[in-house]
Amino acid sequence: MSEKDIFVLGIETSCDETAAAIVKNGREIIANVVASQMESHQRFGGVVPEIASRHHVEQITLVLEETMRRANMDVNELDAIAVTEGPGLVGALLIGVNAAKALAFAHRIPLVGVHHIAGHIYANRLVQEMKFPLLALVVSGGHTELVYMKEHGMFEVIGETRDDAAGEAYDKVARALQLPYPGGPHIDRLAKEGKPIIDLPRAWLEEGSYDFSFSGLKSAVINTLHNAKQRGETLRPEDMAASFQASVVEVLVEKTMQAAAHYGVKQILLAGGVAANEGLRTQLREQMKRLPEVELVIPPLSLCTDNAAMIAAAGTVLLQQGKRASMALNANPSLLL
Q: Which residue numbers delimit the Gcp-like domain (predicted)?
């Protein structure tokens, strides 16, 4: 007799995407709906928490209904509801958490709280089965981390950013270059047209450290632009974008390679919003030739940015491990992995 299929509804509202998805057996997407708020936040040059929360309130019911419709399923056919409990914007998280609790309570369905970064890592499982031990490079607007995993659900953060996350540095440099928000895709595109000829720092930190630091680089870009302006020189934005991206990518990739070799991993997973960066993806594929026995998994662009399929995928593993949340589940904006 074959084991029964597990269907998990994922809900994600940690920042400015209202998302819901249904995933089968933690591997297969049945339905995946994302309502983005990017246009609302663009004119402010960043995410405004109060506006994000209000949009989530307006969208959550519609997104859930659309997900069930696309999956052609009834709520009672679900085995669990997985929801992002943190980290993220507290007001935004609360909308998702309360929607999940209401559904779970009304239909007597198990509830599972998921860490947002665990979700990003498990987005890779929707592409390729995970092979342990593995190393995940998580790069997003709020996070830059190297996470070592010996088995499902076990996360050891071996390196993290000491100041700005890579995505944050991208947004700030984009603003200095007068590019629209979010800055990452614009810098990535500009970098292809420029040459990395501007000398910018790389923060390697102390020997043997897998931590990251990008605030010095961000300051160096702003100072270089400012000094050039004072001297009446014009720097090509394309060259600045290429130079900045080269610095970020070199440090990210090199530390990942060193950690992968040191920990003897079978797989390297790329995760998070900045995983959509073409320069990073290309360089990582290139450098993987140094570790021919290690497999590289990079999710498609749709699974790099915030989505709920990744939350359902991570939630399925927790469900199978017997981990459940009670109705006391609350949003935790600074939840640790």
A: 28-312
